[in-house]
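Sample entry (383 residues):
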Amino acid sequence: MAEKCYLIVGGGMTAHAAAQGIRELDAQGPVTMLGAEPHPPYARPPLSKALWKGQPEDSVWLPRVAGVKLLSGRRATSVDRKARRVTDDRGESHGYDKLLLATGGTPRRLPFGGDSVVYYRTLDDYRRLRRAGKRAVVIGGGFIGSEIAAALAIDGRQVSMIFPEDGICARAFPKDLAAFVTGYYREKGVEVLAGDVPTAISESGAVRAKSGRELPADVVVAGLGIAPETRLAEQAGLEVRDGIVVDAQLRTSDPDILAAGDVARFHSDVLEKEVRVEHEDNANTMGRLAGQAMAGASVAWRHVPMFYSDLFDLGYEAVGEIDSRLETVADWKVPFREGVIYYLRDGRVRGVLLWNTWGQVDNARALLAEPGPHRDLKGRLPR
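Predicted structure, serialized as tokens:
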């Protein structure tokens, strides 16, 4: 029987986990990985967390997977589904029996500032920010903006934040928690311009705000989210809808092409809706399962991914829909310091925020899977 030939487009955590998944079932089949970055696979979360707290940079490298041919600094440009070949930006063609698209996403950009703005996502972005001066302006108050602003302040930088929402992580946290976190950042020395937007970056590098304020900066960092990188899938005629649509076996509309990680859009049976998840747990878990599927395993994607963050000495883990537009029920052990927040839609818990509360992720997942309605949530999960 001929060896199966595997091709992975992407060189991040999802791609690495997929290679491991393949090797769990197929020790010999050739695996080629096309990575756009000039580096081998590395862990991304430490870039806005542990590396700013003293963890050495070389700790981010992920272990080599045996027998994987890594082609770094390559971008796939087209897929020939009939011939089962992918062409890269050097004109080289790569064959496959099973193809995984782990193309991730591209940072959303400002209409001004050009390359003077650090769109924080990669190891090279981290290195650039490490070398930058003392005054930093962070544009964006969501997941990445909140993390990198805290990291830079811990590093001794003078940090200003600017974003249009009323408070830090206002799209995720209930209003009172967002207000507390915003005040906490100010106590830590971060200048927070909530409800304001940047309009330009001057020749001196200062950020000009709609309010008329001008924020001096040695470096400007933007955390505006990502757009899923679907161009290759679109060119190949695959189904795309704010991500590459996959079924429970992580197959695209072409059964020999799979997708996983940030770029994959899937139906969550637990949440009863289509979702696309941009966090570490999803990348690693989905990537591994996709690799196993490529190697012939019968799989079913039912995992509810979690995510986590560190904000100075505050921290949280979260599962499901963390959306401040939903009804919320707070169960505080110590207000704003330790507790659980439940997010409900139509009387059923759709998300759980574990605020400085640890070891409860699996219990939160179990709660999400229970049929509703959910009542008497106080004390439902240990705080």
